[in-house]
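ENTRY TYPE: paired fold submission
RECORD: A
CONTENT: sequence, then structure tokens
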Amino acid sequence: TVSGTIYYPEGVLQLLLALMLGSLIRALRDDRMAWWAATGACAALGLLIHYRFVLAGAGGRASALAGRDGRRLWLRPGFWRAGLIALAGLLPGLLYNIREGWPVWAYQVSNRPCGTDGPQFKYLSALIQAQVAAASPVFFVALLAAVLDAVRRARRGDAPPARR
């Protein structure tokens, strides 16, 4: 391989995602600051381990923008506290990348082993295609079903499942 032995922490990231979502469900249910802090702490650890955990946070923000109940989250102090705690896990990697000239972005988008110059859309596209191909199609079908259900609920004004 180009970079030697690489540790892919998939198991740990999946565990942190499950713990983060469990804490988030409890935080949505009773709005206790401890659950919001646990949500942020799981996200921070996930971001510290690997930058792609940012997708979990992006999904959370998209969900918070999707429906009326989601938009109310922006008014809750715990929602912001969880985000600030999560940011603490993102900062070390972000600061490293700023200081070192964005090596992660450069590798993923422009400096693949073939040595191209500048950002290349085909490499970004290839990365996304490889990620989709590597994951189980069953996962994507389930994810699509969940997103469509969430959109349907948001349009009808239904309460999210955590509030029932």
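RECORD: B
CONTENT: sequence, then structure tokens
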Amino acid sequence: MRDEWSEAFINALKNRDTERLRQIPKADLHNHFVLGGSRSFIRERKGLMIPALEGVLKSMQEMDQWNQEFIGKYFESSEGRRFLIEAAFVQAREDGVTVLEIGEDVWGLGQYFDHDVNALTEAFFSARDKYAPDLELRLLVGLSRHCPVQWLMEQLEPFWGRPEFCSIDLYGDEMAQPIENFVPIYRKAEEYHLIRKAHIGEWGTAEDIRAGVELLHLDEVQHGIAAVNSAEVMRYLAENRIRLNITPTSNRKLGRVDSYEEHPIKVLFREGIEVTINSDDVLMFDSDVSKEYQRLYDHGTLRKIFKIHIENFSAYAIITF
């Protein structure tokens, strides 16, 4: 089956056959569900047309402003949050995603689920069962860098030891506070055998990535594209098998790379670093996983090998130009 899917995937890319591309199983391991829903589903159910972002943003503040204008003000309720969860699973199904890693930020437990972690997990798994029952859901706990660490520790208490959660992720402004502040949280996450990941190296430096991996004992890095600026850091990531979950269009729309052709993923991959290709924020960036692969193919970014995650294993599709 692996060879069949790989060949079908290659042919779909060559023929720009979007419908076929979406039929092929794939993973999305870097997805913020609030911005990860199906545009058509939201329009049909809510009569709300959310436009994809045009142009390039200059800061995370501009991203937050876009989010508030087109998403936040419409869904600031428990019902709205549950609807966005449903929309994320509809989008995953439409794009042929069979492994999806998403989750709620710790502050959302109180704001949308009345501090009831059972209600939170039920919202995700019931939406999965309703809209994408064959999908493997990997639920994560989200943390904002902007929040005081002691407050985060308090909010995390209901999550520790819950078998539904497989990972923990730190995101937000990379410069909000020093990465070492979060060491106590990540030590506890390690005790509970959670996969440890964090957003590093989209705005920061290659050295920031290595420091984050070493201090937080990370298994994966969200973005991590700045590693391309240091041969030593790339070697470190490759030798320690630290995976980078990369989102090409997000990097482009946030002005972190100048073009798809020059996206660092091609160098990172050739240096032996495991990379995955993901959506990040579908509604904002028009970046479902199939489109991300097609864009990289069309721009000749990865000229020899795409690493595609099919079901629970990795397949290597040889791409010839």
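NOTES ON RECORD B: The two ends are 24 Å apart (CA to CA). The chain has a mean pLDDT of 92.
STATUS: closed
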